[in-house]
Automatic annotation (TrEMBL):
NCBIfam families: tsf
Protein name as annotated: Elongation factor Ts
Keyword Protein biosynthesis in annotation: yes
Organism: Bifidobacterium gallicum DSM 20093 = LMG 11596
Pfam families registered for this protein in UniProt: EF_TS (PF00889)
Protein localization: Cytoplasm
Coiled-coil residues: none
Keyword terms: Cytoplasm, Elongation factor, Protein biosynthesis
Length: 287
């Protein structure tokens, strides 16, 4: 595959690495973007803290919990504006709440289904969103949508400042006993951004990629080949502890894990999701 300027630009934006580093990685990967990213990570030249797929957007995340037939359902919807000036207005927040309510009423499961939901006066949410652009004087669109259910659903909505609406929403579904620590778990999800509930939920291709990067990084550091497998397993465990909710150190007491919190009350976490304004959907678990 030809290494084009557009391809280099894409990988630079997604990794934060320099142009020549990106070009060399793409050449080594023969144009395979995913492989080039792995090479960049293995060489330690990815910009610190750079998130792939980051979106420069403002907005609000509307959320609610509804109980029904012994089950609770949690819903969250991201509604984007161009500026935080618009996002923090009561009218925009009310608009987001109304769109979420329309989506719930239509039993929507995806953003596309929310857009197709009736919104009164013989219009759809899609039409209402298009008309909102004229009302607010900015481009308005829907971002992420999430629905979660269980015997208990806890929501924590985080505001980056007192005058702003929620920009991060963490939702977790638990069994009845797990409800005792659900709030603490939701705070943890909001603050630490777990991606999966258990290590078994981590996709095999993600594990393989992490293993490959850890191996190449260890070899590049000059570690003896005979001990590289042990080092790789250690780095994989560190990856799990950072990204798997039940294996994360509890922020209020690092001597225990989030999994320990649930074991102490003989409860279970069933699923969770975290939405953040302007970011790709981070973590969701079905079990």
């Amino acid at each position: 595959m030809a290494i084009t300027a557009a391809l280099i630009k894409q990988v630079r934006e997604e990794t934060g690495a320099g142009m020549m580093d990106v070009k060399k990685a793409l050449e080594e990967a023969e144009g395979d973007v995913a492989r080039a990213k792995e090479i960049i990570r293995a060489k330690g030249i990815q910009a610190a803290g750079k998130r792939e797929g980051r979106k420069a957007q403002e907005g609000v995340i509307a959320s609610t919990v509804i109980g029904e037939d012994g089950e609770q359902f949690g819903y969250a919807l991201e509604v984007n504006s161009e500026t935080d000036f618009v996002a923090k207005t009561p009218k925009f927040v009310d608009f987001a709440d109304k769109v979420l309510a329309d989506g719930i009423e239509a039993e929507a499961a995806t953003v596309d289904e929310v857009l197709e939901a009736p919104a009164g006066d013989n219009e759809t949410v899609k039409t209402a969103v298009e008309e909102a652009a004229a009302l607010f004087g900015e481009h308005v669109k829907l971002g992420q949508f999430a629905r979660i259910q269980g015997p208990h659903v806890e929501i924590y909505a985080h505001k980056k400042s007192a005058e702003m609406p929620p920009s991060i929403v963490a939702m977790i579904a638990t069994d009845e006993k797990g409800a005792d620590v659900a709030h603490e778990a939701a705070l943890q999800i909001s603050a630490m951004g777990a991606r999966w509930l258990t290590r078994e939920d981590v996709p095999a291709d993600v594990v393989e990629s992490e293993r490959r990067v850890a191996t190449e990084k260890s070899l590049a550091e000059g570690k003896p080949e005979q001990i590289v497998p042990k080092i790789v397993e250690g780095r994989l465990n560190a990856f799990y502890k950072e990204n798997v909710l039940l294996e994360q150190a509890y922020v209020k007491d690092p001597s225990k894990t989030v999994g320990d919190l649930f074991r102490e009350v003989d409860g279970h976490a069933l699923a969770f999701v975290r939405l953040e304004v302007g970011k790709a959907e981070e973590a969701a678990s079905d079990e």
